[in-house]
Fold this protein.
Amino acid sequence: MSRPSVIIIGAGIVGCTMAYALAKAGARVQVLETRAPGQGATRASAGILAPFIEGHGSELLRTLGKRSLDMFDEFIATLRADGGDGIYQRDGTFELAFSEADVARLQELMRLLAEQGVDARWVDPSAFAEVEPLASPHARGALLIPSHGYVGVTSLTLAAMDAARTLHARFRTETGAIQIASMPNRRIGVQTSRATWEADRVVLAAGSWSSAIDIHGAERIPVKPIRGQLLQLQGAA
């Protein structure tokens, strides 16, 4: 039985991790990217793994986030075993409350999480030094959720790319897709400015730039990149 072939358009966090997973499953993988891997929207991600405080009131989103969080330890261990190594820590989140409304909101969240079996603890200001010595002394308390963590998104993306390459995935940079179209024998073709490639399947992982790609027989995807802002701080050594 021949190995299935897959073309992935986009080498961000989604494209590179999919390339790694598909190559590990035995597929022949080729990734096309208009720039260097991880240099699109991926590098603007803060990498916070905190579904219990970033569910935005949606139980469905919170459930999906928890399921993803629960898979991270095994995924990172497997990735490292295959030669990829990225920044990853599970040292919790510590959300401060500065008003009575904050206290009420966080303590209610703590109660709901406790009902779901999630470890969430209230920390009084007198105990801040034991958990986070640099926390503001003006806070009225804080919610500690030890299971939360973060990843270095760019480092994880490059680690997935390295691991995928060890499994014989190929990456072509400065090669952007222009059109995706059906071809004979149930194959799918991808046209770039330089050549036309074909495979059994094509995965579109171009993110906000997907609308620039013409998919034969389908309307263009109505998405566009929107500039955001991040502030990165470094404390004294």
Helices lie at 13-24, 59-81, 100-115, 128-131, 153-166. Residues 76 and 88 are 8 Å apart (CA to CA). The chain has a mean pLDDT of 91. The radius of gyration is 22 Å.
